[in-house]
Design goal:
homodimer, 307 residues, alpha+beta, seven-stranded mixed β-sheet, 13 strands
Chain lengths: 307, 307
């Protein structure tokens, strides 16, 4: 199959919306943005051996993850997904077939989030599989959910449960797109981001951007069953709580809200997944942990992309 | 340097425009698109060993190429460059330093095209360097320069000279951004694209999309000095013309215009580089070459991304 045939195939696989001005297969995609609000852009690259193992996880789960990590970033900004472009760098052996599988699976998964694949780039080489997805979203009237808006006294909240993602959730997580859109529409949130590199590391980023610190309540952290299981399995001597605090790829939402608004949100529990209060923003920079009425400083730790 | 420090450094290196709603370092970039026309999006991935050799070419030229191939795609759509996001997958050894060099060089090169780097993703691994750039442009009132608009009788034109790009031009070419914007503003073009995979292969794409064929004049093809040199050096038995017809990575513009408009354009020669008439669009699908009043069919050949 030539690149031309491949583009034709792609065009038949990938849904095309009425408002596309230029059909797929030209030098670039043209999106009608006239009726849309501001443009939100995020890009994530996943590499064989670092973010997935193709032989173990299979193309469908890998394709899903490549799109889902970007959807999680759009959710974290409070943006509605619109479109994505996909670059594939494929192992030369079987490149064509793998490209078809990945793109078909991505197109299907994208549809579930009302998002379209509008273009990209496909190459083969002697190395492992690399997938880059750049996703575009539109802000809603609620505006962006920034990470630098947390204020002294704000309550810190998380969706779902944390830790142990490497036992499977890092591939199969549901990006919190609909959850984020529902929350920003109905509640006054000060700040928010997704937890991609571990709660402590991402919380340090949120508080640093906001010019405050945070005190966490150890007993309040929602620990996933996987975090407990991984704590035993890994033999690292780390507790389940340690995993919930520092494992990467939770892809849950970390939020800050003024106390009265947080109370209302916690009472309402408006999502199908739990929202849990885990701490409070304080004036002094840095992170602390309250454990049985004993407060200790904690250092941000998690996944370092260049480590 | 932590990722947080890295983002701070990046923020100080990369120029930030007044209309950014959310500063660099949040989950995603937010661009104010309210005053802009439709959104043009293109994405290109470059890989060590396939598109460049880092040790031989050095980070500055590699960084430049990664951005320039995307600028060429924007030019080919008649779009004005606005912003780009950059994903880096770096060899683990020296990852931080290399990331800084690449991003600094890209930011500088972007500035020359009034384009800003607004975000991206940085990872390291055990493999070679991979760079993905997704670039955003805005259409001008002249609208998009599509590849499917060529009509029977249209004259085919190219900018600059073709072939032998691998002797250096594939790294140092000037993307025809300003040239394309000038041409679409002042001339009625039927179709256009950039020549990235070889004249014949890209011309076949343009004519196929437009539902026509093309006859080329062998004597009219502008052959670069590099194509002649490479024809000798490579020892492949290919003539300089063969190289001009099928070498990849020329990154010149291939255009179609109605005869009267093409005449005016050829007379005016409005660019600092030559524009040359190379052939004409015909009704019958396929490609032909006129050589000393002898017409032969030619098969599209060039760079196959999955070959």
């Amino acid at each position: 199959m030539s690149e031309q045939d491949f583009v034709s195939w792609l065009r038949s696989t990938v849904s095309v919306a009425d408002d596309d001005i230029v059909p797929l297969g030209d030098d670039a995609a043209v999106l009608n943005w006239a009726r849309r609000d501001n443009l939100v852009v995020t890009s994530d690259l996943l590499a064989e051996g670092t973010h997935f193992c193709l032989a173990e996880h299979g193309p469908t789960r890998v394709a899903r993850k490549a799109l889902a990590v970007n959807l999680s970033d759009l959710a974290a900004m409070g943006a509605r997904p619109v479109a994505a472009v996909v670059s594939l760098l494929l192992p030369r052996q079987g490149a064509q077939l793998l490209a078809e599988e990945l793109l078909r699976d991505m197109a299907l998964f994208a549809q579930a989030y009302s998002m379209r694949i509008v273009g990209g780039d496909t190459n083969s080489w002697s190395g492992g599989l690399v997938i880059n997805v750049t996703a575009f979203g539109a802000l809603t009237p609620a505006g962006p959910l920034r990470r630098d808006g947390a204020r002294l006294g704000d309550i810190l909240l998380v969706t779902g449960e944390l830790g142990g993602s490497r036992l499977g959730k890092h591939l199969d997580f549901e990006p919190r797109v609909n959850e984020a859109l529902k929350l920003i529409q109905h509640y006054r949130l000060s700040a928010g981001m997704d937890i991609s590199d571990g709660l402590l590391l991402d919380l340090a980023r949120l508080t640093s951007a906001s010019g405050c610190g945070a005190v966490l309540e150890a007993d309040a952290i929602p620990i996933s069953a996987a975090a407990s299981a991984w704590g035993v399995q890994s033999g690292s001597g780390q507790s389940a709580l340690d995993h919930a605090l520092s494992d990467g790829e939770d892809f849950e939402l970390l939020l800050a809200a003024p106390p009265d608004e947080a109370d209302r949100l916690l009472r309402d529990q408006p999502l199908e997944i739990p929202i849990t209060k885990i701490g409070v923003c304080v004036a002094e920079p840095g992170l602390w942990m309250d454990h049985a009425s004993h407060r200790t400083p904690v250092s941000p730790r998690g996944f370092d992309h260049l480590g």
